[in-house]
Design goal:
The protein is an alpha/beta fold. The chain folds into 2 domains: 4-262 and 350-364, TIM Barrel (Alpha-Beta Barrel), CATH 3.20.20; 267-341, Orthogonal Bundle (Non-ribosomal Peptide Synthetase Peptidyl Carrier Protein, Chain A). 39% of the residues lie in helices and 12% in strands. The chain has 14 helices and 11 strands. The chain has helices at 24-40, 58-62, 66-69, 89-103, 117-120, 132-146, 168-178, 200-209, 223-233, 250-256, 267-285, 287-302, 309-315, 321-329, and strands at residues 13-15, 49-51, 55-57, 81-85, 107-112, 153-158, 160-162, 165-166, 182-186, 214-217, 237-240. Strands 2-1-11-10-9-6-5-4-3 form a 9-stranded parallel β-sheet. A two-stranded antiparallel sheet has the order 7-8. Helix 1 links the parallel strand 1 and strand 2. The radius of gyration is 20 Å and the shape is globular. 50% of the residues are buried. The model has no long low-confidence stretch (mean pLDDT 94). Bound molecules: flavin mononucleotide (FMN). Residues 16-21, 54-55, 83, 111, 113, 156, 186, 217-220, 240-243, 347-348, 379-381 line the site of flavin mononucleotide (FMN).
């Protein structure tokens, strides 16, 4: 169990929650890579890791919806960390209690940063911190619900709705006041979505504004970037998102420490990791589902390797472990890692949004009062 507020130790490094990606199989793969790195490390103080589950709706848990419960899958021995999305303090509190009491969850993270229009249009995710009263109510209710179990509650947010409507400093202060254990800042606004560069200066500003730990997030592609972010911003730890897509060995590098050499697997080694990923997914929900889920990872894993267009096309359609093995057997296992890929953005990027979709009149006041914010069963970050 992490002690409440992570007292008495360095903050862990986080695998940032990614809807559709950070399921139990992917988390286990990352954890296995981190364990390799820890075994190789000679450092006196080794980092801890938290691999956060995909975002789950609080309403689905509070109302015991089977489809939502089915997302609560964990690998054996996993230290369970779940990100909750919700807009109603009572429902978030109920969900937090269920997670702690019935699922042995050891860390709850609250989503205050989702930029998906379906969510912000209703005042959720990244739109929610604009309403200070609701933010305080929701964070406070979650902390109170988790308290009897000694479970820390963290919050993950963005800089604000757009450059003119920032929210992160207010949210940070509220989080500190109500007993949140740490604030993760993805240093972009909702309007920016995943475009441009994360503003690490904002992370430094948050570090200088609040006394609870800040976890920096945004554009960490290599272990060296994580060390640079810590140095540049003073953040207590980091959260890794897109940098580990198709490169779970980033956690091996992070575990070995900033001065260790970057892992550069040959194609044969990448194949082994991809196959392991496929096996883990198949164990989780069956081979058919598992191999379908794996397809989205293929372009990330094989980016830059000289495998040819036809193999890439077939990998994106793979449907069984045997198929996967056959396709991998056609590759040149000795091909070296394409170093031009190092330090390069991967995963979602895209353009800034023309406008952020918000409920009518949302920006007119910083309080919500008794108004309801309807919850949406959706995902994203
Ligand atoms: C596919 C995908 C799904 C995401 N889902 C979530 C989510 O459910 N909750 C969340 O807080 N952030 C989510 N995010 C955002 C990431 O956790 C992270 O904050 C963001 O990608 C910035 O970090 P990075 O530059 O290291 O990727 C998602 C990102 C991606 C690419």
């Amino acid at each position: 169990m992490w002690s409440k507020n992570f007292a008495g130790g360095a903050l862990p490094v986080f695998l940032s929650p990614m809807a559709g990606v950070t399921n139990a199989a992917f988390r286990q793969l990352c954890a296995q890579q981190a364990a390799l790195g820890l075994a190789e490390s000679t450092a006196a103080e080794k980092p801890q890791f938290v691999f956060v589950c995909e975002m789950i709706t609080a309403g689905g848990i509070a109302h015991r919806i089977p489809r939502t419960f089915s997302m609560l899958q964990f690998f054996p021995g996993e230290r369970r960390a779940v990100q909750l999305y919700g807009t109603d303090p009572a429902i978030v509190a109920k969900a937090a209690e269920i997670l702690c009491a019935e699922f042995g969850v050891e860390l709850i993270d609250l989503n205050f940063g989702c930029p998906v229009p379906k969510v912000t249009r209703k005042g959720g995710g990244g739109a929610l911190p604009w309403k200070l009263d609701r933010t305080a109510g929701l964070l406070g209710a979650a902390v109170k619900a988790a308290e009897p179990y000694g479970v820390p509650v963290t919050v993950k947010t963005r800089i604000g709705i757009d450059a003119e409507h920032t929210t992160y400093l207010d949210l940070g202060r509220i989080a500190q006041d109500v007993g949140i254990a740490a604030v993760t800042l993805h240093a972009r606004s909702v309007q920016q979505a995943y475009s441009g560069q994360a503003d690490w200066e904002a992370i430094a500003t948050l570090v200088n504004t609040i006394s609870i730990p800040v976890v920096g997030n945004g554009d960490l592609w290599e272990a060296a970037d994580a060390a640079r972010m810590r140095k540049q911003t003073g953040c207590a730890s980091v959260a890794i998102g897109r940098g580990c897509l198709g490169r779970p060995w980033l956690f091996r590098d992070l575990a070995r420490g900033p001065s260790a050499q970057t892992t550069l697997p040959r194609l044969g080694e990448v194949n082994q990791i991809v196959y392991r990923h496929a096996e883990l997914l198949a164990e989780l929900n069956g081979e058919k589902w598992g191999l379908t889920d794996l397809r989205k990872h293929m372009a990330w894993y094989y980016r830059g390797f000289p495998i040819g267009g036809e193999l890439r096309r077939q990998l994106a359609l793979v449907s069984s472990l045997a198929d996967l093995r056959q396709l991998q057997d056609e590759m040149d296992a000795s091909a070296v890692f394409p170093t031009a890929e190092l330090g390069q953005p991967r995963g979602r990027q895209g353009n800034p949004r023309d406008k952020v979709h918000l409920p009518y009149g949302w920006l007119d006041s910083r309080t919500l009062g008794d108004a309801e914010v309807p919850e949406d069963d959706t995902s994203g970050g």
